[in-house]
Structures are given as structure tokens and as C-alpha cells.
Amino acid sequence: MLLDTYKRAPITIVAGEGCELIDDRGRRYLDCIGGIAVCALGHAHPAIAQAVATQAQRLVHASNLYQHQPSEQLARELVRRSAMSAVFFCNSGTEANEAAIKLARKWAYRRGEENRRTILACTGSFHGRTFGALAATDNPAYREGFEPLPAGFAFTLFNDAAALEEAITPQVAAFIVEPVQGESGVHVATAEFLQTARRLCDERGALLIFDEVQCGMGRTGSLFAFEQAGSRPDIVTLAKALANGLPIGAMLANERAAGGFAPGDHGSTFGGSPVPCAAALAHLRVRDELDLDARVRERSAQLFAALSELAHSRPELLGEPRGRGLLIGLTLQAPHEAGAAVASARECGLLIGSAGGNTLRLAPPLILSEVEASRAVSLLGRSLEQFN
What we know:
Layout: E1 13-17, E2 20-23, E3 28-31, H1 34-37, H2 46-58, H3 69-82, E4 86-90, H4 93-110, E5 118-122, H5 131-135, H6 140-143, E6 153-156, H7 161-167, E7 172-177, E8 180-181, E9 187-188, H8 191-204, E10 207-211, E11 235-238, E12 249-253, H9 255-258, H10 274-290, H11 292-313, E13 322-324, E14 327-331, H12 338-347, E15 350-351, E16 353-355, E17 359-362, H13 370-383
């Protein structure tokens, strides 16, 4: 019996194929939540399956006491593609953010700035559910009952450059921000805000961390969301889609920040294990072969146009779509509830998610076809017919 920590839908998934999931009754669903922005190449992709099987026959685990090829190769690929300097592997997004928080504090400590301890985050942020990442998360529902959380965290208004000017004080070790906030309702950080963050961190001696756990790995139309921001972070965190469904997280640091850690400062038993690293390498190869960024931009333009048309046809029900790439939010107008709309879509054969602010969230596989995108909007429209 599983611990009661999830409100699971009343269907049992037994298989997946491309952009579809299949339940134990044989019913197929068009998956437009993608394991919560995880399954970038869809389900049962042959390249991922082959990479996992081949690596599992060779070496599953050796620990981080020794070097092994998959983690070394994946680290080189991520460094090359990001122009960062070093990578730390872990198992999830929250662990990647924990590593980033620890690195920022240790970086300041090693510079002799022992009073520079504050981690500054944004209103509406979500950085994970472990204690450090939760302390950087601005959501009372997630924090309630777990206090006292670790000290040394503060918040500033999302997308408010003037407030950020006031918030980055000499005590701030790092500012952590999501280029696209997913959990709070799919809100995009403006280029001005992220560029201001870069300038202020440089001027005031703080590190800049981009949490790309949900919006990274091509979801916004470029491998890293920061490529579209005109602002490069010192640290970027990844997870979710990196290995297309296998548990892996990564913290990438530039040369400036990477020196904050020395042997023994941080670690992970399973971080960078051979099998998920092999899957991640296969994912990177496939995305290159498919020119996945161009495909994401095409499907994004198609979906935004179609969803805008749907919203205009039901202004009393839907707000304008927002987001970037294939991370899209639609606000459901009160008194209707996102949970009911998600259930209705599921009954129609469409899987979507919800997020903060009564928002419907779409994060489909990045291989979504033109036909499947049209079908998704059609199914969503049909599912909303019950709401008058």
C-alpha cells in the first residue's frame, strides 16, 4: 500500500507509445502533460529503450568512488552545450536545487564572506520539496506543517526589477529564479528582469541561479531557457526531461562558481549512475537528429494560435494562453475549477495538468505532431463543453 501523498487519477497506466498512454482497459489517452514535463521524446522511444538495455547489460552502478564513461561523457556534453565548466549529478530537481543552494553558500564562505548566506527567491517560486528547496519555495500550502524551515531565505517580487534592486543586499549569496514558473501557473520571466538580475549579481557579488528543472531541456524551444533570455546564470539546474523518464538531476556551474565545492562538500550515492546517464546521452543525440528545437517552436506557435481561438470563443471560461514553447498555461475563470477540467479532459481521452492560480497546464512530449496538437485542442474544447 502506497503512502497517501498523491491524489492519483482513477486510471491505471500500463504502457505508453509516442505521445499516447494506455490504461489497463486498453484505452488510449493523448498525453499532454508528459509525466509533468519529463517525457520529451514521448513514451517507449526506441533509442532510450536501447540505451537503457545496453548499459544495464554492461554496468548499472559503481558509485562515485570511481569514474565511469556514461557520467563523464554526459558531463562533457552538457558542459559543451551550455558553456558551463562543471556538472554535479544527482537524482531529481529538488536535489539539483539543494546542490545549487549549498554551492552558493560554500562559494561565499570560501571567499571569506561568512555573512553572505541569504538565498533570495521569487514570489510564486517552486524549487522542490526537500527542506532547503522548500525554504526557497513561495507556496504556503507546500510549507504548512513543516516549519521551522531552514533560515537564510528571502523573497522578492517576480518580474519586478525595482524590487530586485532593493532585495539583492550584501548578505545575498545567490538569487535563484525560474525563467518560466511552472507550478505557480506558467508565468514567464521577462528578459528585462533576468538581465537586471545578472547585472545586480555581478555588481553586488552574488551568484545567479536559473532553475530550469521544468523549463529546460528544450521545452521552451532551446536546449536551455537562458539562451532566450540574454542573461547567463552562474549555475543552472536540470532534471525532469534530462533522461526522458529515468531519475537524474544535474547542477551545472560556470568557472566562477564551480570552485566553491571541494571533495567532501557534497555527494550522492546514485547521482550520475550509468543507466540514466546513458539514457540522457541518447536523448541528446535524438534531439539533434530531429532538430527538436525547431519542432517545438512550430508546435508552440500552432498551439498558442489554436488555444487563443478557443479562449476567444469562451471568454467567460478561459483566459489567454501564456507560457513559452511547449509549457503552456490557460487560466480557468472562476467559479470553475482546474481539477474538474482536468478530469473532464481525461474522460475525453486527453491528459493535461493543473497549476497554481486555477491554471490548466500543458507540457506535452516535444515530439508532438501537427495532427496530435490539433487533436489536443479539439479534445480540450470538447471537454469544456460541460462548463456553462
